[in-house]
Amino acid sequence: MDPDKIKNWMDFAQQMYGQDFWKNIMNQENMKDFMGDTQRQQPIHNHAASNPPPPFPAVDIIKTPSHYVLLIDLPGFQKEEIKIILNGDSLVLQGQSQTLQHTSTFIQKERFHGSFERQIKLPEPASKDHFSAKFINGILQITYSRLELEGEVVEIE
Description:
Layout: H1 3-17, H2 21-26, H3 28-35, E1 59-63, E2 67-73, E3 82-87, E4 90-96, E5 115-121, E6 131-136, E7 139-145
Antiparallel strand pairs: 1-2, 2-7, 3-4, 4-5, 6-7
């Protein structure tokens, strides 16, 4: 390519788009945006419409030889603010935490406040007679006995 034509083209672009045109074009940050920086960190939780937030509260279910244990994260809640409804192989958790009253503007708000309801399908049906719940340090621990159903022999007529 002819160096004079390149110089004329560069001068023309600078006249059309301002004195900082080439400075902005050659800026490394702008180049990353333009070229697609593969080193750039993506947000950990990008909850766009196609990627809904995880359900609240978070639940782990553990199976032991004799029991099931559910560990449910409810930070900031008091046990009086939580309701457990057991219906066979379904557990409904409901809760209402006190909303913080601030006269200031939030810069960032990630913690949960307000009411929630979550239905959890249990691996096996539970009986209230063999069911216990404890709330310690923001973790609700629910334990229930596994049913030991033995197969029954059915006579053929």
